[in-house]
Amino acid sequence: MRHFSLLFLLPPLLHLAAATSAAATVALKTETINHGPVSVRVRYAPAESEDAYDTPPRVTVLYRGRRVASLVLEEVVRKPSVFITQMDPANTTPEVVIAGYTGGAHCCTVFRVVTAPPGREERRWKVVSLGGFDGGPEKPEDMDGDGLSELRLQDDRFLYRYDCYACSYAPPLILSVRDGREVNLTRRRAFRPLLRAEAERVRRDILTMQKENPKESPNGLLAGYVAVEALLGNGPAAWRFMLRHHKPQPQDYCPMPKPDGIECPVRPLEISFPLELSIFLRETGYVGRRD
User: Which helix (H) or strand (E) holds 31?
Assistant: First the structure.
């Protein structure tokens, strides 16, 4: 009868045990935020930890001590920012706004809002995803004085669309949650002063650019400027301004839907900047929309 030694298995077994032990001893931190009957526990790996980028944070929402929502932020690489504020008038409890950074240049902070079902606060709460946006966490604020908070973000679809990141202008985007759903409040009359100030600022930037650097293209600014003016009902005047100041640069236009969201399935058409911009503004709802 032959006898085999198990000693050759010891090094890999010891290595596996050490790795398992190290994984089990990841030093996670837990922070709790309380606001009336709502509590939020955030469990995360500290930024200085080697596991900060490999250990997604977990957020648990409790109502009167009972867990009503729990989510793992798989794409988030740091401790998320958490705000407890009233957003949705359909219920009597505040919402939990979670903002988490995903890493990468010019991107992204993802926003989720945890909200209670009306009249059933003890039940499972709903998680509303608002998407990812360029820049750092934005704090929800009551921007129009109605007692409900909103998030001032920006329409990132305009970035890189017609020029470089720094040469582009992304119009303001005011988002919130109503009746348990994401709502775009940018067109509300209460936000018209904000839009008007933005339009005036970008218009000055365009004129200054053309005075100081006449060879540079203002098309990346003009696209967002026309969009904001269209929200204010000044689309025709802004369009005439664009026609006077744009650089005639041809744009690629895909006449077919893009299945993967990146590549055009057919050969793109080369069209003028004003024509491509008119198509883009209609596709994004800035013009041709009836509220």
Answer: strand 29-35
